[in-house]
Amino acid sequence: KNEVEQSPQNLTAQEGEFITINCSYSVGISALHWLQQHPGGGIVSLFMLSSGKKKHGRLIATINIQEKHSSLHITASHPRDSAVYICAVPRNTGNQFYFGTGTSLTVIP
Amino acid sequence: DVKVTQSSRYLVKRTGEKVFLECVQDMDHENMFWYRQDPGLGLRLIYFSYDVKMKEKGDIPEGYSVSREKKERFSLILESASTNQTSMYLCASSPPGYNEQFFGPGTRLTVL
Q1: Considering CB atoms only, which of B42, B100, B102 is closest to A101?
Q2: CA A33, CA A31: separation in Å to the nearest integer?
Q3: Distance to chain B for A50, nearest Cα, Å
């Protein structure tokens, strides 16, 4: 049983396209995290959100707590957005997280 | 800026060897974590530590042990490496609470 499900697993887009990555979770949470992992391994945090919407540049994250669903949108996608995007929600104990399996995004010039 | 460093980016070892992966963070974080990442499985927690000399098993501790003798350093040990331990290993640290975790660059370990 996966507490966090992401879709799609893989996504290929043309440069300039609007992209949506979805995350559904089954546990009660205080906040949800979106992470980005570029080729080569390093993971960085993009957003932590507990309600509504957050925007950072061309990235927008939304969350619907009642429906236990979050989306990550990328507007005007660019090849440098090519990365794996990971959704994470806190567990009940130990400062730990449940992680989604990630969405691998490739943006073609 | 928080910095988490890992001792190697790439490592190749033979079956049966003892392997040490080191992680160092420079932000005085209490919590440190070791994950492995495999295609289709995502990040899986091996061990974590919330204080010096404290350690807790994660979801997949079998075949691994850890050591935290100093607050800034968290080591992952493969007592006898096996081919099924070929993976990407990522270390992370965080302050208390469900805050952002800061990840190291990862070590891609291949066991032959």
Answers
A1: B42
A2: 7
A3: 12
What pLDDT sits at residue A1?
A: 63
Whether chain A has a CB inside 8 Å of the CB on B2: the answer is no
Q: What is the amino acid identity at position A62?
A: T
**Judging by DSSP bridges, how do beta strands B107-111 and B10-13 pair with one another?**
parallel
Across the interface, of B42, B96, B99, the residue whose CB is closest to A102 is B42
The confidence score (pLDDT) of residue A19 equals: 98
- Residue of B32, B36, B2 whose CA lies nearest to B19: B36
For residue A57, with 0-12 CB atoms within 10 Å meaning exposed, 13-18 middle and 19 or more buried, which class applies?
Answer: exposed
CA nearest neighbour of B92 among B34, B52, B39: B34
CB atoms A42 and B105 under 8 Å: yes
Interface check for A30 against chain B (CB to CB < 8 A): the answer is yes
Q: 3-class DSSP state for residue B2?
A: coil
Q: What's the confidence (pLDDT) of residue A94? A: 61
Helix/strand/coil for B53: coil
Which pLDDT score, from 0 to 100, does residue B96 have?
A: 81
Closest chain B C-alpha to A23 CA, distance in angstroms: 14
Confidence band of B10 (pLDDT split at 50, 70, 90): very high
Q: What is the pLDDT of residues A2-56, one digit of tens each?
A: 899 999 999 999 999 999 999 999 987 778 999 999 887 789 999 999 899 999 9
